Amino acid sequence: MDILDELTRAHRELVDGKRKTVTLRRRYDAEVEDVWDACTDPDRLRRWFAPVSGELRLGGTYQIDGNAGGEILHCEPPRRFTISWLFGENPGFSEVEVSLTPEGDATLFELRHTAEVPEEFWSQFGPGATGVGWDLVLLGLALHLTGAEKPEESTFHLTDDGRAYILGSSQAWGEAHRAAGGTPAEVEATVAAVSSFYAPQP
Predict the structure, then answer these.
(1) What is the CATH number of the domain that holds 105?
(2) Superkingdom of the source (predicted)?
């Protein structure tokens, strides 16, 4: 797999209002049942995403090791689920919806994250703060579905491919920001901040 080629496989959108919505859409060459299982089975999630515990059923709660937790708000196997995405001591509204659409032997995957974001955080980082993280998640899923190994998270940004992928993702979210009405100055500043956060100079 060409990791950098994975960047071009995703379409990114931003809706910039009181609540911010970032959307990623891409096609996986795997049947919808396989993609659903990869996204909902704890044993598989551990291999490409992170350890996830809890009652993984409608109305149940989940916790991602070292990350967000929340409630499973909607579940329609193997097509769609919605979860609250709560992180930190005083999280505001934040929900993630994943939709899967079969396309023959392939699957159209769409992830939509809608959240209330503090203005000071948004003005500093823009959509890339969330978007780059989700791009890395989609890369992990792509590797998993093709049988490839997940890169080591703690050192991925130090590899040539990892750094190029992260910086490319940051730029792509800058373009989505611009398309949603961000000014050139806003886009330049947020892309620089996100790039420095995810891929600091060694």
Answers:
(1) 3.30.530.20
(2) Bacteria
Q: What is the pLDDT of residues 155-171, one digit of tens each?
A: 999 999 999 999 999 99
Is the pLDDT score of 102 beyond 80?
yes
Q: Over 70: is that where the pLDDT of 1 sits? A: no
Length of the chain counted residue by residue: 202
Instruction: Give which of 25, 1, 45 is closest to 107, Cα–Cα.
Output: 25
Assign 3-state DSSP to the chain and report helix, strand, coil percentages, each to 5. 40, 30, 30
Q: Which residue has the tokens 């600091």?
A: 200
Do 101 and 79 contact (CB within 8 A), yes or no?
Answer: yes
The answer to whether position 2 is within a domain reads no
Residue 66, phi-psi category: left (phi > 0), alpha (psi -120 to 50), beta (remainder): left
